Amino acid sequence: MPKPTAPFQLPKTLPSILSDVYDYWHGLIRGKASNMPYWDDVNLSDMPSADGHLILMTAFAKPERIRFDIVGKEISSQYGHELTGSFADEIDPKAPLSFLLSQASATIEGQMPSYYRDGASERLVLPLWGDGHVSMLLGAVVEVK
Questions:
Q1: How far out from the chain centre does Cα 111 lie?
Q2: Which residue, among 52, 59, 57, 48, has the nearest Cα to 24 in the 3D structure?
Q3: Distance of CA 56 to CAs 8, 52, 68, 73, Å?
Q4: Does pTM surpass 0.85?
C-alpha cells in the first residue's frame, strides 16, 4: 500500500523570507533528540529579515485551539486588523489566513512543517515542542509577487 502524502506539503523551493524562517527553525533542532525545536528556543528577534511577517501561536489540546500570541504588522495589515490575543476559530477565515486552522491542525498532527499558497499569499507553519507535545506554532506569511 502506498504511503499517503501529508497535506500542506512544502514545495521544493520557498520564497526568501519563508526559506529564512524555515532555516532558522531547522537550525534550532537539538540533534537527534527531536524532529522539531523546543518552543522556548525561539527568539523572533533572531529573524530580522522576517520582521512583520511572523506569527507565533499557542496550540492548545483537547479541545484543539490556536491562539495568536504575536502577529506581525504586515499580516495584521493584510488581514485588516490586529489579531494578537484572538483565537483562530474566532476570526473570519480570509486572506492571508484562509485555511489556517486546517494547516495548523495538519502541522500539529503530522508534527512537521506545512505550507499553503493561495492567489495572494504564501504561508509556512512550523511545529514547536513543549510539555510533551506540539505546544506552539511558528508561522510566516508573505504576499505572492
A1: 12
A2: 48
A3: 19, 12, 6, 13
A4: yes
Boundaries of every domain in the chain: 16-29+48-143
Q: Torsions phi, psi of 32, nearest 5?
A: -100, 10
CATH number of the domain at 16-29+48-143, please?
3.30.450.20
CB 123 within 8 A of CB 140: yes
Of the pLDDT bands very low, low, confident and very high (cuts 50, 70, 90), residue 32 is confident
Contacts within 8 Å (CB) and 24+ apart, 1-7: 6/106, 6/110, 6/112, 6/114, 7/102, 7/106, 7/110, 7/114
pLDDT band per the 50, 70, 90 thresholds, residue 34:
confident
Give the chain's end-to-end CA distance (angstroms, integer): 39
129: Cα separation from own chain's centroid: 13
